[in-house]
Each structure stands twice: as C-alpha cells, then as structure tokens.
Amino acid sequence: MIQLLRVDKVYEGGRWALKDINLHIKKEEFVFITGPSGAGKTTILKLIYLGDRATNGQILLFGRNLAILKRNSIPFLRRNMGVVFQDFKLLSDKTVFDNVAFALRILGTRKVELKTRVLETLKLVGLEKRSNEIASMLSGGEQQRVCIARAVVNEPALVLADEPTGNLDLDNANQVMDIFRALNLKGTTVVIATHNREMIEKTGKRTIILDSGNMAGENLPRQGDAL
Amino acid sequence: MIQLLRVDKVYEGGRWALKDINLHIKKEEFVFITGPSGAGKTTILKLIYLGDRATNGQILLFGRNLAILKRNSIPFLRRNMGVVFQDFKLLSDKTVFDNVAFALRILGTRKVELKTRVLETLKLVGLEKRSNEIASMLSGGEQQRVCIARAVVNEPALVLADEPTGNLDLDNANQVMDIFRALNLKGTTVVIATHNREMIEKTGKRTIILDSGNMAGENLPRQGDAL
Amino acid sequence: MLYRNLSFFLIEALKNLKGNFYLHLTIILIISISFFIFGTLLIFDTNIDRALSSISKDLSLVVFLKDDVASGSEDFLKLKKFLLNYPAVKVVHYTSRLDAYLDFKKNFKGYEKVVEEIEDNPFPSSFEVRIKENYSNKKELADLISILSKWKSVEGLSLSKDWVNHFFSFISLIRMVIWLLVALIGTGLILIIYNGIKLTIHSKGSQIEIMKLVGGTNWFIRGQFIFEGIIEGLLGSGMSLLVLYLAYNLMFQKITGAFSFIFPQQAFSFFSVNDTLLLIGSGTILGILGGVLSTTKYLKN
Amino acid sequence: MLYRNLSFFLIEALKNLKGNFYLHLTIILIISISFFIFGTLLIFDTNIDRALSSISKDLSLVVFLKDDVASGSEDFLKLKKFLLNYPAVKVVHYTSRLDAYLDFKKNFKGYEKVVEEIEDNPFPSSFEVRIKENYSNKKELADLISILSKWKSVEGLSLSKDWVNHFFSFISLIRMVIWLLVALIGTGLILIIYNGIKLTIHSKGSQIEIMKLVGGTNWFIRGQFIFEGIIEGLLGSGMSLLVLYLAYNLMFQKITGAFSFIFPQQAFSFFSVNDTLLLIGSGTILGILGGVLSTTKYLKN
Ligand SMILES: Nc1ncnc2c1ncn2[C@@H]1O[C@H](COP(=O)(O)OP(=O)(O)OP(=O)(O)O)[C@@H](O)[C@H]1O
Ligand SMILES: Nc1ncnc2c1ncn2[C@@H]1O[C@H](COP(=O)(O)OP(=O)(O)OP(=O)(O)O)[C@@H](O)[C@H]1O
Ligand SMILES: [Mg+2]
Ligand SMILES: [Mg+2]
After folding, report:
1. For B53-67, B106-120, D89-103, which range has the lowest pLDDT when averaged over its residues?
2. Hey, which of B145, B156, C72, D259 has its CA 20 to 30 A from B75?
3. DSSP per residue over D213-263, as a string?
4. Annotated domain spans of chain A
5. A45 lines ligand 1 (CB under 6 A)
C-alpha cells in the first residue's frame, strides 16, 4: 500500500525533517507513528498525502510512484484517503455539515445519500446535533471530531490521522479509536501519528518510532491481534 | 485571586456553555480544570482573561470586578497574566523570538534585557536554537511550546493554560509541567485546563471537574503537596 | 452531476459573497468605478467625435451687404440668385440688419445697454453661405470669393472658421487629456485588478488549500470562485451603467442644452444598446478572469 | 520608551508591508490613482479657470478700415490718435491688409490655394481695440461705437466676442462633466477606501486580536498600523504626483502649445509647491485615518 524507500525531507532553510526513511505499510494494516515533538511525524504523513514532495527517495502509494505523479492526478489519489490534520484545517466559516459533506460533494454523491451519510458519520463522533453550527464556534475537541468525521465519511482506502486525540478526553478518544478500528476491520489501512503512549499500548498495534527525523525503532503488533 | 460567583455563559445561538459556576482560586494556588470535550473548560479561562464577558454572575480577579471593568483597563490586567491558548494564537508570520518578545515589548522592556529573557525562556522549552524561525513553520508541538514561552516570559502573577500538553510527548510535557511548578513555587497562580488524567494524577493538585457546563465535582490536593 | 455542481457552485458563491462582504463590495466598487470613468469618458468622446466630424465639414462664408441694399431690391435678389445657383454653394441663409442687431443683443448679454445707446444700427445685413464639402479646396471657391469681393452691393467677406479653429485646438487638447487619463487609469486599473486578485488569493488561500487537501479537482474548486467573479463583474458593470444613466438623465437638460448650442445639428446621446451589452459583457469576462486567475496560483502545486 | 516604541512601530510596519505585499500595493495604487485623477482634473480646471478669468475681461472691438485708407495717411493717424486717447480704450493694435491676408493663410491651412487664386486681397486692414474692463458696460463704449460707425474711413465694426461665446458654453460643459466626475469618483473612492479599510481589518484581524490578548494597549497596537498607513499615504500620493509630473513634462509641448494658442496670455502650469505639499499632506492624513479606523473595530471590545 505505502512504501517509502530511502526518503529524505529537507525543508527550505535547510532543516532535515526526515533522514533515510524506509517503511512499508501493507494493505489493511493499522500502524502508529510516534516520537517526540519535532521528530517528523507530520512530515511523513504530509509526504504521503502529497502535501509536499520528498527531497530524495521514492514513495509508492496505491502502486504509484509519487515522485513522478502528474499534478492533475493528485485530487483523485486524495479521494482514496481521509486525512485528520494536526491543526484540523476546517473551512472555518462553513457549518459542521458542509465541512463533512465537502468530501462527498467532490465525489458527486447524490443529495439524499450525502445527507444520510454525513449525519451518520457525525453521530459516530457524537456531533449529530451540531451539524448546523459554524465550525469555528466549536470547542477544540469538537473541531477535532469534525475533522475526523470528514476524514472517514467517504470510507476511504487509507486513513492518515495526525494526533487525532490530542484535544480529546479519554471517552471521546476511545470512541474515535473505535471508529478507526472498525474501519480497519472493514479493510481500510490506518496510519496514526501520535505521542500518546497510553493509546498505543492499549491498542497494541505495530508502532514506528521516529526521533529527529531518523527511524529510531519499531514495535511489532501484539500477538493475537490482526496485522 | 480569582472568584466566580454564580457565573453563567450563554453563547449566541443559545448554547449554555457554563451554568451557575462558583469557584474560588486562591493566590499561589495550582489548579486543574478538567472535563470532557465541550464541557466549558476553555470558556471558563476565556471569561477570566476577559476574552468574553459572563452572561450572568460576578467574576473577581486581582480584587476587581470584571463585569464593571472599563475597557481601557483590560490590557493592564492582561499584562499580569500569561495565557496558553488551546489553538496557540501565534503571530504566524513573525519569528519565534518576536512572538515571545511581544509580551515584553508592550511592557517597555529594554532591548538587552528583553533579548536575554526571551532566549532564557526559549531555552526552558527547548527551542533556543529556533528563535529566528517563522512560527508557522514549526511542528505542532513546537508551536505549543512557543505559546507556553510567551505566556511565562514576563513571570506573570497568573498563568492560564488551556490543554498545554495536547501536542506534546511525555518528556516535553513533563518539562512544561516543571516550568509551571517552578513558577508556582515562585508565587505565580497557575490554572490549567486539560483532559489529560495522567498528568493530573501525577501532579496531585486540586482539580475542578466540569461536565456540560456544570460543576461536576472537585478533587482536593494530595496530602503533602502545597496548595 | 453537472447541474448538481453548478447549483452548488452558485450557492457557495453567494455564501462567500455574504460571508466576505467587504472584500466583495470593494471589488465590485472598483470594477464599478472603473467602468464609470471609462463610460463617462467614452460617452463624452464619442459625442464630441461625432459632432466634430459633422462640424468640420461646415465651412461657411459670410457675405456682408452694404447698408443701402434693401432685402427686396433687385441687387439683393440678383446676388441671392447668384449664390443659390453657384455650384459650390450648399445652403444660403439671410440675416437682416435687424436680425443681426437682435442676435448681437442675445449673444452679448450685459452689453444691451451699450447697444441700445448706439443711435444707428451698426450691424450689416449678411448672407451666410455654407460651402459644399468637396468644394472646400477647389478653384470654384476662389472664384466665388473673387467675384463677391468685386460685387458692388457687397461690403465685405468673412470666412467664418475663426472660432471653430480655436475651438478645434481646444477640443483636441481636451481629448488629449481624456485619452491621457484613460491610458493611465487603464494601466492603473489593470494593476489594481491584478493585485486585487492576489489579495483575494490571500484571503481565500487557506480555503482553497483545504479543499485541495480533501481531494477537490481544480475545476471543482474554481467553480464557486468563477461564479463569484461573474456576480461581481455583472454587479460592478451594471451598477456603473446605472449610475451613469441616472447621472445622464439628471444632467440631461444641462448637457444637451450646452451641447446643442455648440453643435446644433447634433443630439447628445447615451450608449447604444449594443455598447451597453458590450460593457456588461466585458464586466462579466473580467469577473470570470478574476475567478480563474485568483485560484490558479493555489492550484498550481 | 517612546523612541523605542516608535522605532519598533516603524520596523513592524515595514515588515508588514513586505509580508502583505499585494494588499499594500493595492492600497497604495488605489490612493495613487485617486490622487492622479484628482490631480489631473485639478490642474486642468485651475488652468482653465485662470485663463477664463483673464480672457473674459478682454472684450475687444475690431474696427475695419475702408480699402482706400493707407496706413500713413492723415485719416489713419487721426483715427489712431482718437482711439488711443479715448478713455475706455486700453490697447490698440493695427493689422494691415497684408497682415490680415497672411493671418488668414496661416489660420486656414488647406485653403491657401483658395486665397492665392483670389486676385484682389479681400481682407481689410483693421484696428483691434481692447476695452478696459470697467468700461465694458458704460456709456463711453456706446459712444465709441456710435462715433466709429459714423467715421468716414471706417468700413465696419465687430465686437469680437463671437467665438469666445461658443467657447464659454463649451468650456462650461466640460467643467460640468469634470465636476460630475470628481463628485462621483470622490463618493466612490470614499466607499472604496472605507471598504478597503474593512478589508484590511479582516486581513489583520487575527493579528490584532492576538496582540490584544497578550496585553497590548490600543495605542501600542495602533502604532504600527498607523505607520503603515503613513507609508502607504506618502507613497500613494507621492507616486501619483510623480506620474502626473512626468506626464505633464512629456506632454508639455503639446499641452502648452494647444493651450497658449487659445489663451495667448496664459501659460499652462503645474501645481504650485504649496499645492503639492497639500496633496502629499492629505495623502498622509488619509493613511493615518486608515490606520486608526482599520484598528478601531477590533480594539472596541
Ligand atoms: N514548513 C516547514 N518549514 C520548515 N521547517 C519545518 C516545516 N514543517 C516542519 N518543519 C520542521 O521539521 C521538523 C519535523 O516537523 P514535523 O511537523 O514533522 O514534527 P512532528 O513529529 O509532527 O512534531 P509534533 O509532535 O510537534 O507535531 C521540525 O523540526 C519542524 O520545525
Ligand atoms: N464562540 C462560540 N459560540 C458558540 N458556541 C461556543 C463558542 N465557543 C464554545 N462554544 C460552545 O460552548 C461549549 C463549551 O465550549 P468550550 O470551548 O468551553 O469547551 P471545552 O471544555 O474547552 O472543550 P474542549 O476540550 O473540546 O476544548 C461547547 O459546546 C462549544 O460548542
Ligand atoms: Mg506534528
Ligand atoms: Mg477547550
């Protein structure tokens, strides 16, 4: 599904955010990426959803080489992924409903189906009663959940989530993890970047550890769990 | 130091964010406010730093009644507080240094002293080498630490921190908590809103629990600890 | 799906217009004022141009008669007949001594007293002879002047192009200033619009960014901004034409009055329907271009 | 502390200008173009106004002489002396028949052939008599006309206000259009600037918000925005004056040529130093106002 081969990322200004990263994430896998602040977690996800290009190395995604991918193929690739951004990236003057619906509208989903699915997904994150409120008026945790709803509403083949529970209490965090696990069981590949050790340990999935842009280690999934 | 008497907050649109809150935080106290997403944590802090006014009830701060405070006194009141915002609120096109220095510039601090203090504070949060980078280019956790540095750089009488470790790994989070504790020992009152139970338990301070805008309970500080 | 998208775009465009009210009001006003200035200058210039092309052909010769030539006398009739039959002559208009006196009184308000205290009427009677265009440079005209200057009832001649001449150089000065203004304002407007678009980009940049990250294609994202542009362009050009038309109607009396006094054969007119449609059309195109350009930068990568 | 703040404001203002380049370029361009339009119209209007106030006083009387009156003859000298001594007369200028013929040739380009083929010179010699201003409505003038119309060497008289009259009504039309433009553009500009400021607020809103939350006083926050405004106003008005001056110099030949042909006693001139300073001053004030207003809304609560 996702393959990183000797990937470097050097930002303008010369900061090495990633150094020689080799990584293979299989289809239907559930993977955590962890590491201290500034380790490069967000950067790895960014390279995968094509928010930026790698400085060196190859990235294969859905069997395509991102380094040579044409610009106008990007939107179609992205439609197969749902991304939860660390800073949410909600359309701040639109309603909760419109934010989540956008991911379906670009697919040309019919009005009735669109409405049903958006409301169903909002229910999953506990925001079904808030659908007509303006996104920027929600609390931090509520915004984060809208972002999660948008990422999963079209049941994508790949979900990338960056610190998806950073603003959530334990109950809400568990609920969100349940959503990801359920999707994963239905066949979605899930990659979560987080610093939350508790969550990682509880879930017991494969975990990739970064430090200052280097691969610092890897914990294999607990026995008895799926991939 | 801070007294809330029968405080309600109803947002436009009719949402009750706080209902009949009574709260007394003493000078030099260290208090956590916790509760699930949307409970009203951010709203309480907002009322204290005068980002909004209470719908009903009285709030006393530094011995002044916020309900009748004149507008042009607000800036001077705020200079005695450092606030860590849940969404950081950094000046995104300014450098890390300028962001932290702003809190000192408005006080008219001299250039040399200003520079020393800003760099010292950045060192505390582990960003002394990043002072000339543009704030928006930092990682999520790094931005959060800049925000913390700005809140404490002028050693205010009161620090309000909203989810200050939501984007930080354990080491960095501990470091930040150490900073708050050290300030507290020097006499600063600290109020932290967080959903992080682990951190609350480890610190063992007085904790106020909110739920859907109501006071849902209160844990007193562990024995042997200061206030 | 196309219909679904179009109606979505329109709705989003209207929401954007409402949400970012001042930005869009400013853009509409800029478009509108530009069109207003261009419109005024164009109306003015077209009218003057048309009037000039008619007036410049009207070379006329004034033949002053001796005081003792009465208007029905043999000599008078002979001269009139000669003038009317002369090949280069287009129209002949007679002004009697009394007419000349009254004309003078009318044209020289404030000098009535002067004239009234003059005992004899000092103004001669005259024929104003308008020359056919294609004769203005020919031998017939020279001959006519020659003959007339020797005619015994004729006291003097005057080729009445005097004020017209001054007038022409003045008008050409005015038109030069107008076109200087148009050229410079035009350049400036292109810069303003270009930068206004860059500004729009900045204000819309994060929205566009997010839509792209969620998988929107370029044209899907552009859709609503193009609709926004169209609405802005239509409103902008429409408003300017409306104001222009109202101003025109309000000032109609004064403008046409002053205008017809100078160019009696020429009515002062507003844009034709075609021109109006053209202006509104170019407003719309400007809007579409704005929408496309403003999104292009953020859609690049 | 004041000095420290001022230099901080200036530096921040410059950083803002650089950071938000297109926003500020647009604002500067809008200010600049407004000033340019106003400047052009003002220069034009002032010059015309000045010229008109001089020309309207120049009522002149043309006294045509009979063909047989030679320029040195007794009658000629007597008439000249009479005119020079007459109380209402200011200046007397003689045009011989040959001069009149040459003048005609010069003024009627394209008709030289016509004139050359005329055998006798048809143009009479004349005295142009300029009347003193304060006499233009008095009995002396009427008397003068009376006397001259009976004078035996005089063939005719003409009060040369004919073309000036047409000219006046045309100029008043032009000036009406100019002031209409100024009024409407002015209104529009106030709207644009007002909305431009609202726009600035939106783009700066979050920054202002944050500065306030960190404890900045209103005037501390305003500081840098006011400096921004001053820089914008200075650049805007300065640029427009520069362009105007360049245009003026570039077109100088043509403009002054056309202008002096119509108003021979009047030189076409640019703004005075005072006016220039006034314009730049008002640009600066506009900028300060913009800076203050644009921050006021966010500073309210
Ligand atoms: N746009 C950028 N320009 C320059 N440097 C950047 C940019 N984005 C990130 N960096 C730097 O690259 C490094 C890795 O950043 P990244 O955001 O991937 O960290 P992270 O692991 O997500 O950290 P966090 O847990 O704090 O979110 C950091 O040092 C950061 O400062
Ligand atoms: N500006 C606003 N307008 C309307 N409603 C608001 C506004 N800000 C917050 N709310 C609502 O008030 C309630 C309390 O919000 P608040 O931000 O205080 O929650 P919180 O405890 O900080 O939650 P979180 O842990 O998610 O940050 C929420 O339901 C939220 O949607
Ligand atoms: Mg990150
Ligand atoms: Mg909150």
Report:
1. D89-103
2. B145
3. HTT--HHHHHHHHHHHHHHHHHHHHHHHHHHHHHHHHHHHHHHHHHHHHHS
4. 1-80+157-221, 89-155
5. no
Nearest to D95 by CA among D56, D58, D63, D57: D63
- Sign of torsion over alpha carbons C165, C169, C172, C178: negative
Q: What are phi and psi of B85, to 5 degrees?
A: -85, 150
In angstroms, what is the span from residue C205 Cα to ligand 1's centroid? 21
Edge-to-edge strand list for the sheet holding B16-25: B16-25, B2-10, B56-61, B64-65
The residues, any chain, with a CB within 8 Å of residue B171's CB and separated by 6 or more, are A36
Interface of D with B in 3-62 (CB under 8 A): 4-5, 8, 15, 19
Amino acid, single-letter form, for residue C157: L
Task: State the residue for tokens 């240094």.
Answer: B97
Choice from B130, B139, B143 to test ligand 1 binding pocket (greatest atom count within 8 A of CB): B139
Biggest CA–CA distance in chain C, Å, is 99
Q: In chain C, where do the E strands start and end?
A: 60-65, 89-95, 126-131, 154-159
User: Is D220–B106 a contact, with Cβ atoms under 8 angstroms apart?
Assistant: yes
Integer Cα distance of C134 and D135 in angstroms: 45
Average pLDDT, integer, range D156-170: 57
* Angstrom distance (rounded) from CA C229 to CA C30: 13
Q: Where are the alpha helices (DSSP H) in chain C?
A: 2-19, 21-55, 74-85, 97-107, 112-116, 139-150, 162-213, 218-262, 273-299
Assess contact for C202 and D20: CB atoms under 8 A.
yes
Which pLDDT score is estimated for C162?
44
Residue A108 has its nearest CB partner, among C1, C207, C212, at C1
CB atoms within 10 A of CB C180: 17
- Chain A residues with beta carbon closer than 8 angstroms to that of C217: 72, 75-76, 106
Contact B193, B46 (CB under 8 A): no
> Given this model, what pLDDT does residue B92 score?
86
Cα separation of D121 and D137, whole Å? 36
Q: Residue C262 is which amino acid?
A: I
Asked if C75 and C69 count as a contact pair (C-beta separation under 8 A), the reply is yes
Tell me the DSSP string of D67-129.
TT--TTSHHHHHHHHHHHHSTTEEEEEEE-HHHHHHHHHHHSTT-HHHHHT-SS--PPPEEEE
Average pLDDT of the residues of chain C: 73
Mean pLDDT of all residues in D173-183: 70
Predicted local distance difference test score (pLDDT) of residue A226: 47
Count of other CB atoms within 10 angstroms of residue D57: 14
- The arithmetic mean of pLDDT across residues B53-64, rounded, is 94
Most confident of A66-75, A81-90, D52-61: A81-90
> Which residue on chain D is closest to C30 by alpha carbon?
D192
CATH superfamily of A1-80+157-221: P-loop containing nucleotide triphosphate hydrolases (3.40.50.300)
Q: How far apart are the first and last CA of chain C?
A: 26
- Alpha-carbon gap, residue D93 to D215, rounded angstroms: 80
CATH number of the domain located at residue range(s) D60-135 in this protein? 3.30.70.3040
What count of CB pairs under 8 Å joins A to C? 51
- CB-based contact, C218 to chain A, within 8 Å: yes
CA angle D295, D299, D301 (to 5 degrees): 150
Domain residue ranges in chain D: 1-56+166-299, 60-135
Q: How far is CA D189 from CA C20, C200, C233, in A?
A: 20, 20, 18
Task: Please report how many Cα atoms fall inside a 13 Å half-sphere around the Cα of residue D208, on the Cβ side.
Answer: 24
Q: Tell me, what's the pLDDT at A227?
A: 47
- Is a pLDDT exceeding 50 seen at residue C195? yes
Would the CB atoms of C218 and A105 count as touching at under 8 Å?
A: no
Split at pLDDT 50, 70, 90, the class of D194 is low
Q: Which of A86, A144, A169 sits opposite B140 (nearest CB)?
A: A86
**Residue A93 tokens, joined:** 């003057």
